[in-house]
Amino acid sequence: MGKLTVVALRIVLALALAGSVFVQAVMVPLLARDLNEDFSPDIAAVSTPVIVIVLLGIVTIQVTMVCVWRLLTMVRRGTVFSHAAFRYVDVVAGAVAAASLLTFGLGVVLAPGESVAPGVVLLIGGAGVLVAGVALVVVVLRMLLAQAVARDAEAKHLQDELDEVI
Hints:
The chain is mostly helical. The protein has 5 helices and no strands.
């Protein structure tokens, strides 16, 4: 991965992380106020679980961004094909799986009552399935990383044997 690509991705991650902190600090309290004041009593009744789900969803995104940052650091140092990378990939997979569960939870919270159309709840469920699919993609990428680490270790072993012969 080129140096420019790493720098560009770090800039994007830093901006996204700053934006997510802004959303947590400013936008979510405004959303909470709006849910309690401007909508029907059905929505006001579920405003607390909705706000908690939104906040936890933002945390899953932040955790993922921090882990990707750490993986980028490993790429820059040339140590990404090591067992230390598995920790960050596992955390990303867990965070995405948690985001999927939170999405399904949002659908469950919004399903009762007449305030939210059934089609919207179905769309939220579909989004939860898509996020679960992303978690599965991360798991597949983890398996590919495991294969790459094994091949790298084998190549180092063969190189050591070759160095002994020479």
